[in-house]
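User: Thanks for the earlier help. One more: L-lactate dehydrogenase complex protein LldG. Can you show the sequence and predicted structure together?

Assistant: Of course, both are below.
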Amino acid sequence: MSTRDQVLGRIRRALADAQREAAPARGAVDRGYLRVHGHRDAAQTADLLAENLADYRAIVHRATGDELPGRLAGLLAARGARRVVVPPGLPERWLAALQDVERVPDSAGLTARELDAVDSVVTGCAVAIAETGTIVLDAGPDQGRRRITLVPDHHVVVVRVPEQVVDSVPQALERLDPVRPLTWISGPSATSDIELDRVEGVHGPRTLEVVLVTD
């Protein structure tokens, strides 16, 4: 008998005389907390998002819908990107200005080693949270699998303003499906040791660029 079986057996014996209809150990969770801190219009919410993203060392850009293809092409050119991972549902017009760039389609057969050899990845997002400076991905068609946003060293995220921007985490949770694979991103991947020496690019992109797009 394995250790796991022994532990589960003890739990079953301990619960053998418990009533199946027993009341829960605790009551309903109090939801009386503030949903939003302060009052902001859409422009102020977008400004707060940009401020908090920058505070987490993400690089924030602004563009209109018409400017977006040129802006993305410029960001990738400045990075020297020649191979870029592209989710299957990314709008084609976003990448219309790319030149001399190989698009690597996201597929189940794409290995971590192959992803490590690409220069950048461009995705959309599910929602962006202004109060925390957080981008949330849910593996939607314009975001692709979680793997493509964790292995490449440079990630460019497009956020549509104002429709994809919310003030707070409670508002974001209302928009998200908890059964989907959610990735919450607050700045580039980083960690600190006991002496607080910050190291970036540990378990995700070293560089995160966010383009806030308004029409």
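User: Great, one quick takeaway?

Assistant: Residues 42-55 form the longest helix (14 residues).
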